[in-house]
Amino acid sequence: MKKNIPVYDIQNFPAYKNDGILVSRFGYYAQQHQHLHSAHRHSFYHFVFFTKGSGKQQIDFKTFEVKPNLIYFMIPGQVHSWAFESEPDGYIINFSPSYFSSLLLHQEYLDKFSFFSGKPEDQVLVLDKVTSDKISSLFEDILKEGQTEQPINDDLVKVLLLQLFITVARAANNSNETTINPYHHTILRNFQQLIEKNYTQLKLPKQYAELLYITPNHLNALCNDFLGTSAGKLIRDRIILEAKRLLINLDLRVVEIAEKLNFEDQSYFVKFFKKYEGTTPDRFRKQYLTTPYGTE
Question: Which of 5, 185, 221, 275 is paired with 252 by a 20 to 30 Å CA distance?
Answer without folding.
Answer: 275
